[in-house]
Amino acid sequence: MNRQELVNLIRERKSYLCVGLDTDIQKIPKHLLSLPDPIFAFNKAIIDATKDLCVSYKINTAFYECQGIRGWESLQRTVEYIPKGIFTIADAKRGDIGNTSTYYAKTFFDTYGFDSVTVAPYMGRDSVTPFLGFSEKWAIVLGLTSNEGSQDFQQLQTSEGLLYEQVMKTTASWGSPDNMMFVVGATQADSIAAIRRILPDHFFLVPGVGAQGGSLKEISEKGLNKDAGLLVNASRAIIYAGNDERFAEDAREAAKAYQAEMAEYLSAL
Ligand SMILES: O=C(O)c1cc(=O)[nH]c(=O)n1[C@@H]1O[C@H](COP(=O)(O)O)[C@@H](O)[C@H]1O
Predict the structure, then answer these.
(1) Is 189 close to ligand 1, i.e. is its CB under 6 Å away?
(2) 17-20 and 230-234 strand pairing
(3) Domains in the chain and their CATH numbers?
(4) Which family is this protein grouped under (predicted)?
(5) Does the global pTM surpass 0.90?
C-alpha cells in the first residue's frame, strides 16, 4: 500500500487505529480450543468484528512462531484473511547483515504479502536498506520504544543529543516518508512533540495505549500531522476485551471507543 492510499483510508474511516493480533493461545476463549486452528478462528472473529473501524492490523510474529509450523500456518491464514486495502504489519523486529535482511524482507513482503515489517536499526545502514527496495512496502523502524528498557540505550545522552534522536535522523536519511515509518511508544508522550519536530512528515506506529497505559489524547495532540501521520496500535485492550462467547462483540466495542475518539482528533486537524 502506498502513502496516499493509507492517508485516504484514514480520512475515509476517520480512524488511525491498528488492531494488534497478539494472539496468545493461553488467553483465547476456551470454547475455541477444540477447533482445528484456534488462533486463526480467534483472529477471524476479531477481524470480522473490527475491519470497518481500523486501518491496520499488526501481527506480532512471536505469538505465532512459538507454535512452530502450525503457528506459521495460522499467521498465513490470518494475513490472507485481512481484507485487501487494510494496511498489514508483520511485527517481527528484524534486521541483520545485508543478505540476511534481504531474505527477511522477502519473507514478509513476498512470501506472506505484508505491507510492512518492523525493523531494529542498531546493526546500521546495510541491515535496514534491504527492506526499502520493495515497491509500496514499508520498513517500520524502532525509534523510541514503549518499554522501560528504552532508557538503557535509546535514551542515552550523546554529544549530539539523545541516541534515539540520532538513530532516527540517520535512519530517516536512508529512506523517505513513503517507505519508512518509526515506532514511538505511547508511553513516551513527553518526547513525541520533539520527535514530530525532527520528523514532521513520517508516519509513526504508536503502540502502548491500553494495557501499557499510554494516553491516546496526549499522543494525538502532540503527534498528528496534516496527513494524520499516526497509526496507534492497541492489542490486549481490544482483542481480550472479553473472554467468553461474546469476545468478538466486546473487541468491537473496545475498537469503536478508540475509533470514536480518533474521529474527534482528526476533525480538529
Ligand atoms: O514494535 C512494536 O509494535 C512495539 C514497540 C514498542 O515500543 N512497544 C510495543 O509494545 N510494541 C508492540 O506493540 C504491541 C503492544 O501490545 P499491547 O500492550 O497489548 O497493546 C505488542 O505487540 C508489542 O510487541
Answers:
(1) no
(2) parallel
(3) 3-267 (3.20.20.70)
(4) Belongs to the OMP decarboxylase family. Type 2 subfamily.
(5) yes
